[in-house]
What does this fold into?
Amino acid sequence: MAIEFKPSPSLPPPVNSVGALAWLRQNLLSSPLNVFLTLFSLYVLYLLVPPIIEWGVINATFSGDTKAACTGGGACWAFIGVYFEQFMYGLYPSEETWRINLSLILLVLLVGAFAIKTINKLYLSLAIILVYPVVAYFLFAGGVFGLTVVETSLWGGLFLTTLLGVVGIVASFPLGVLLALGRRSDMPVAKSVCVVFIETIRAVPLITILFMASVMIPLFLPDGMNFNKLMRVLIGITLFSAAYMAEVIRGGLQAIPKGQYEAADAMGLTYWQSMILVILPQALKLVIPGIVNTFIGLFKDTTLVYIVGMFDLLGRIQAANHDANWLGTTVEGYAFAGFVYWIICFGMSRYSMAIERKLETGHKRN
Amino acid sequence: MSNKTKPNNSLLNDAGTRALIFQLLLLSVVVFVGYFLFTNLQNNLDNRGISTGFAFFNEPAGFPILIHLIEYTDSGTYGRAFAVALINTFVISLLGIALATVIGVVIGLARLSNNWLVARLATVYVETLRNLPLLLQMFFWYFAVLAALPAPANSYEFADFLLNKRGIYSPNPIFQDGFGVVVVGFILSIVAAVALIVWAKKRQTKTGLWFPAYWSSLGLIVAITFLALVISGFPIEFDLPEKSRFNISGGMVLPPEFVAVLIALSTYTGAFIAEIVRAGILSVNWGQTEAARSLGLRDSLTQRLIVLPQALRVIIPPLTSQYLNLAKNSSLGAAIAYPELVSVVMGTTLNQTGQAIETIGLCMLVYGSLSLTISMFMNWYNKKMSLIER
It folds into this structure.
């Protein structure tokens, strides 16, 4: 008669190695130092979070037309409501703001059209890069098809911030690629021109470039030839970020093994063919994080135009803070600006991570 | 019919010639643009009656500068104002770099902490500050935080420090006769400490015996300096800030402009440095730590002797560019009237004299050389720290 082997049922794991309790022990209370750090962090949170919630939500006033409506002792969000249009469009005439909205919708539609499989992507890209800017410019500035002219000095708020950011990003990218290629070129003249340009721009702060754009450029142009200030500032911002972009892209170009260059040559490709078809697609993919970081930096740097007298989002908030009817709403203004900038910049950085994952084509170590 | 294709020997198809032609074209474009701008500049300057040159440096400036570390009165010259602004820029950059490094290292280590809460808080700090424009942060500190402090009469008091709308007031040390003894004692103690460390290292390489050189040299410095203080009878007095009804007298004051720029610069750059430190430490292979442990090194020694030296190699190059960014970003102080280079030279001086070329050129030159100096120093340090390959 065979004796049947009956294993006794396994014991449950010790209470303090599973569940919430174990997690607490491991992650918060593993050593005396950790206990102290946990308590300290909790204290910091206690100091910061309840007052902020109390100020921003519980005691806050969300609607109203004057400062007198804010009686709760907390944040006065009514201030943001009253000034919302200025924060978004600057001093752009309110009956004309549909033009800004329309061009934004147009852009979203065009970019969204990439999702449709039957559309030729090349034509679509060309439409976005070549046709759209012209349409948008005439929508913003007016003067054709019976649209009233809106002076660029009235442009402002988030609209101006976005305009500076988008134009800077779109224009500085190709320029940065050219500069990076020039710096890696065998031709001594091309190389030295690029090196001098890149290093000069990178050595000085953006403010000096903006001052140069707003004060010095008129001195360098013949009489009668003059751009408006927005255009000059745009040129300054573009040149500035192109220099940084060039260095990022150069990093990518250097990371491509020499064999790729040689293979492209061996195929009989010309310089531009080998760059566009072989080298750049690989190099740019490598440096997406760097490129996006430059874009984020550029977007944050657009706030500096306030110093040369243009009223972007931050500038409009500064101006609104000086309104005698709304004294003491400084923090609300900055909180709103911070919220907008943070969403955009954080969104860009997360989006770049998503692209990186999407373009990851293997060669993954471990 | 010959099978031989005729080689296309046209000069235009020769790579060398094409490169030459292209470069000649580029060069002539650069020269032409340069010439065009230069002649326009001369015409415009003539038309507006602006004389070039730095002669205006000797003229009285006639504007006050709030913060000056060297003597400056309203009747000082533009040259003097430039010197004051230059010093202000250097001071804020150096202090900012020191403070940002401390913040960056602390937050970077905190993000790697195995304490969940600490790591999360550090992440929130980094992601918040990195994604907000520096100018906004400066405005926030200056207009929202420091401007909301109480008037001098109701200052916050911590020990002998006062905090109010007008800035931070601290005791001002006044050195009496005989303070030289203390200085000499301090210098001697440092010499002794260095000698001790050198001796301990030599002995360790020779005999393998270990000596707690760093702790004992620290003790040596404190002890000798304190002894010198006692011998000379504490030749130092403090001028304490006193509250009167509307004002504060005495003491040393850090104006709110200075405090706001310093806080904004160092916390902002600190967030970037934290990421660099974290990435550097993560880049050191875990096997290195395991190997160190299997050699029987304590955790602190593992960090100091194995992980940190290897991490520093990865950290230094990006750290350099953060330092450069900080120095350049100090120019944003102009927006809240911290009297640094841009606000004094490119702001007030340019407005009063109209010498656009000189003032903007001078600023670019100063920032250019500042960048060059920092990057040269960091390159030297990087070379010293980098892997010596055999």
About this structure: Strands of chain B lie at 156-158, 161-164, 167-170, 172-175, 236-239, 242-243, 248-249, 252-254. The two ends of chain B are 63 Å apart (CA to CA). Residues 58 and 77 of chain B are 5 Å apart (CA to CA).
